Amino acid sequence: QARYAVVGNPIEHSLSPRIHTAFAEQTGESLVYERLLAPLEGFRDSVERFFAEGGAGLNVTVPFKQQAWETAGRHEPRAARAGAVNTLWRETDGTLVGDNTDGAGLVRDLRVNNGVTLAGARILVLGAGGAVRGILEPLLKEAPAEVVIANRTLARAEGLRDLFGDTGAVAASTFEALLGPFDVIINGTSASLQGELPPLPGGLVNPATVCYDMMYSQAETAFNAWARQQGSGLRLDGLGMLVEQAAESFLKWRQVRPDTGPVMAMLRPD
Ligand code: ATR
């Protein structure tokens, strides 16, 4: 049986083993998928040991996505510029390959699962950290009218604007200077993990604005509560993205795309 795992710290609450085990059952692929807790100072050792012991592939989560990028010997194009890797496997020649399926997962959840139009859209992305680096290129490839990156530290948003500017129309902004409304607003700050919200001005949201929190929690996130108060007609959290990025990784590893619908329903029965 092929062995896979998700590596992170902490890792005990990860839903990835449930998701990939369900994919394997659905597709008839013979594999096991486990949780791997890596010490904060021992990510590379954990990865090398996992593959030396015959592991077939890893997903990487907080706080190791940037280190995973450094550990990979080759990067898939969509991971190369992101500087962050969430999927690893070994080529037959032994090269460790890094991919980033987060952006593809987000785009697919928006466009396919929720019917959101990204082409021609005015998109606001909140945050400029590792989570946002992973989604910018796939988002820009959807040909939005504009992606505005707003961040507490303006210089980081400007850095991403300069890095991704050749892929599409990207602008950088502080929160205060934002001028709405936007068609889509994506929260990629880690603030909502602490139930906090960036200081956002009014006028960003109208009833047609789709608001997407890349974080996922059982209860409504602080960002989605704000979006509801602002009158957004469609508010989504990161569960769909989580399942879709997993499907994209599964496809890379097993060359078969699982059906995400039943797995989404299993994780969030309505
Ligand atoms: P991740 O890998 O989760 O993206 P990160 O690289 O540390 O983590 O980035 C965290 C992001 O959340 C950054 O954009 C950060 O803003 P700064 O660049 O100004 O630090 C943002 N962030 C975190 N806490 C925040 C808060 N309380 N209000 C606004 N933005 C916050």
Kindly list the characteristics that best describe this protein.
270 residues, alpha/beta, Rossmann fold, six-stranded mixed beta sheet, 10 helices, globular
Written description of the protein model:
There is one protein chain. The chain has 270 residues and is of the alpha/beta class. It has 2 domains: 2-100, Leucine Dehydrogenase, chain A, domain 1 (Rossmann fold, 3-Layer(aba) Sandwich); 103-239, Rossmann fold, CATH 3.40.50. It has helices spanning 16-27, 43-52, 65-71, 77-80, 102-113, 130-140, 154-164, 222-230, 239-254, 260-267, and strands spanning 2-8, 31-37, 57-60, 74-75, 87-90, 96-99, 122-126, 146-150, 170-173, 184-187, 210-213, 234-236. The strands form 2 sheets. A 6-stranded mixed beta sheet has the order 2-1-3-5-6-4, with helices on both faces. Strands 9-8-7-10-11-12 form a 6-stranded parallel beta sheet, sandwiched between helices. α7 (154-164) links the parallel β8 and β9. The longest helix has 16 residues, at 239-254. The protein starts with a strand and ends with a helix. The relative contact order is 0.14. The structure holds 2'-monophosphoadenosine-5'-diphosphate (ATR). Residues 127-131, 151-153, 156, 189-191, 196, 198 line the site of 2'-monophosphoadenosine-5'-diphosphate.
